[in-house]
Specification:
By secondary structure, the chain is of the alpha+beta class. It is built from 13 helices and 16 strands. The longest helix is centred in the last third of the chain and has 17 residues.
C-alpha cells in the first residue's frame, strides 16, 4: 500500500495556483488479495484530515450511470437505440422545445439524432457548459441558482448553440454534456419518474450504494462528509451544480464507485450479456484525444484506455476523478484529487497506480 501512497503524496500541494489538498484512492483485486482504501491530505486550507470514506462530486462518471439505465430500458423494450430521440419523447411541449436543437449548415437535423448518437457523443450537439463562456460566467455571477433541463436549454438557445452544430448526427465524435442532459430527460419521460428516483430503484438500492446520491435533487445520505472540488484556488462548494444532472450530478465515494464499475462490467446490471457487449464496443471512430495525444475510445457512457499492455474501461471526471477496471485481471482503480485544473495529474496518478500494481 505504501507505494501507492508515495505516488499520491507527490501530488499533494496546498500552494500555487492549482492546489491539490487531498487524494482518495481505492485499489481492488481479489486475485492479488488487494483491497486498499487510501485517504491522504486535508479537506481544504483548514488542515482537517480526510478519511477514506469521504465523498465527492463524481462529475462525468455520472454518465456511466445514465447510460446503464438507458440500456436497461432498451432491454425492457421501452426504446431502441436507433430510434430518433425526438420520436421517443412522450410530452408534446418537450418535443416542441427540442425540435430545433441542432442546426448544421443552416439545416435542421434535430429529428435525425438517435438515442445511440446521444450515448456515443455523436449527435453533433454543442456542449452547453464549455462551448460558450457565458454559461460559466452566469454560474459565477449566480452561484446559488437552481437548474433544471429547461433552464439549461434556455441558455443553450439564448447563446445560439443550437445554430452552431458540430456536424450532422452520426458524422463524428464530439464530447458534449448536452447529450446526457437529454438522456436523463428521456429516462424521466419513459418511466414517468424523476431521474433521481430511477437511479435509486435501478442502481443505488440494488447495489447498496449508500454513499451515493444525486446532489441538489435528493437529500444528502448519511453523515459522512463531502469534500468539494477546486477550480484553481477557488472552492466550488458553494456553486449549485444542478445543471450537471444526468451528465455529472452524483455525489459518491471510491468504495461505492468500485462496487458500481465492477457490477456493471461483470454483467450484473443487465439481463442479456449482449447488452454489455454493445456498451463496451469501442471499434468505431469515437475517440477522445488527450493533451498528450493519447487516444481513448468511447463506447456508450464508457471510455477505454490502454495503460502499458493493459486495457482499462471506465470513465473520468473534470474534477480529477478516475474509475477504471481491467477485465482480464479483475482489478479496479478509483481515485479523486478534487482539482479541475489538474486532469494531467489525475492521469499520471492512475498510470503510476497501474504500473505499480502489475510490477509487484
Amino acid at each position: 500500500m505504501k507505494k501507492y501512497e508515495n505516488f499520491a503524496n507527490l501530488l499533494i500541494n496546498t500552494e500555487g495556483s492549482a492546489p491539490i489538498y487531498n487524494c482518495l484512492l481505492t485499489i481492488n483485486s481479489a486475485k492479488k488479495n488487494i483491497n486498499y482504501n487510501i485517504a491522504l491530505g486535508q479537506i481544504d486550507a483548514t488542515d482537517k484530515k480526510i478519511a477514506s470514506n469521504y465523498r465527492f462530486r463524481t462529475g462525468s462518471i455520472t454518465k456511466t450511470f445514465t447510460s446503464t439505465i438507458i440500456l436497461q430500458l432498451m432491454e425492457e423494450g421501452l426504446l431502441k437505440l436507433e430510434d430518433p430521440f425526438l420520436d421517443s419523447l412522450q410530452n408534446v411541449e418537450t418535443k416542441k422545445i427540442l425540435s430545433e436543437i441542432l442546426f448544421f449548415d443552416t439545416i435542421n437535423y434535430s429529428n435525425k439524432i438517435t438515442i445511440k448518437n446521444l450515448l456515443q457523443h455523436k449527435s453533433g450537439l454543442r456542449d452547453y457548459f464549455s462551448d460558450d463562456e457565458r454559461f460559466f460566467a452566469n454560474i459565477k455571477k449566480y452561484p446559488n441558482q437552481e437548474w433544471d433541463w429547461k433552464k439549461v436549454l434556455e441558455k443553450y438557445f439564448e447563446y445560439g448553440l443550437n445554430k452552431k452544430g458540430v456536424c450532422k448526427p452520426s458524422e463524428s465524435f464530439y464530447y458534449s454534456d448536452t447529450n446526457y442532459l437529454l438522456l436523463a430527460l428521456l429516462i424521466e419521460e419513459l418511466t414517468n419518474k424523476t431521474y433521481s428516483k430511477v437511479l435509486e430503484e435501478r442502481i443505488l438500492n440494488p447495489l447498496s450504494l449508500n454513499d451515493t446520491y444525486l446532489e441538489f435533487y435528493q437529500n444528502k445520505k448519511g453523515a459522512t462528509p463531502v469534500i468539494f472540488p477546486y477550480h484553481g484556488i477557488y472552492s466550488l462548494e458553494n456553486i449549485n451544480t444542478s445543471f450537471d444532472w444526468g451528465g455529472g450530478g452524483l455525489i459518491s465515494s471510491t468504495n461505492d464507485l468500485n462496487i458500481f464499475i465492477r457490477s456493471l462490467l461483470t454483467g450484473k446490471l443487465f439481463n442479456d450479456p449482449k447488452t454489455l457487449k454493445q456498451m463496451i464496443n469501442f471499434e468505431d471512430d469515437s475517440i477522445i484525444s488527450t493533451q498528450k495525444k493519447e487516444k481513448i475510445g468511447y463506447g456508450m457512457g464508457l471510455q477505454q484506455k490502454k495503460i502499458g499492455k493493459h486495457n482499462f474501461i471506465g470513465h473520468n471526471s473534470a474534477y480529477g476523478g478516475m474509475v477504471f477496471y481491467n477485465l482480464e485481471t479483475d482489478s479496479s482503480f478509483i481515485l479523486n484529487i478534487n482539482q479541475v485544473l489538474a486532469p494531467h495529474k489525475a492521469e499520471w496518478l492512475l498510470k503510476k497506480m497501474v504500473e505499480a500494481f502489475f510490477l509487484y
